[in-house]
Amino acid sequence: MISPPKEQVRYIMNTFDFTRVHLVMKALDWKWGLTLNGPDNIPDVEDLRISSNRMLHSVVDQYIQQNDPKRVINQTGGFTAEMEDGYLTLSFVVEECTNYV
After folding, report:
1. Could you tell me the sign of the dihedral formed by the alpha carbons of 37, 39, 40, 45, in that order?
2. CA–CA separation, 52 vs 36, rounded Å?
3. Which one, of 56, 62, 67, 23, lies nearest residue 42 by Cα?
4. What is the pTM of this model?
5. 76 assigned to some structural domain
6. Number of domains observed in the structure of the chain
7. Residue 99 domain-assigned?
8. How would you write the pLDDT of the chain (101 residues) with one tens digit per residue?
9. Interstrand relation of 38-41 and 87-92 (parallel, antiparallel or unpaired)
10. Is residue 75 part of a domain?
């Protein structure tokens, strides 16, 4: 059984390892244009949590508003929030490749 969307958001926000993402971003000197600490800084864990929570809620809202939802995706700053077939996912992607032409 699929959990209600808001429960899925809560689970992801409590389970996702934002500290690990922050360490990767520091190692790569991965900066965002705007953070709580000002422009052009590496986001801290709070920035990552706030941005991810906003993305997850946005994806859920878009998914619910669609008449025939299949998949909704939102990407920014290395994060991908996706809801497909009622399941919500948050990922942080350092590199990705596809063969779609």
Report:
1. positive
2. 14
3. 23
4. 0.90
5. yes
6. 1
7. no
8. 889 999 999 999 999 999 999 999 999 999 999 887 888 899 999 999 999 999 999 999 999 998 777 899 999 999 999 999 999 999 999 998 988 76
9. unpaired
10. yes
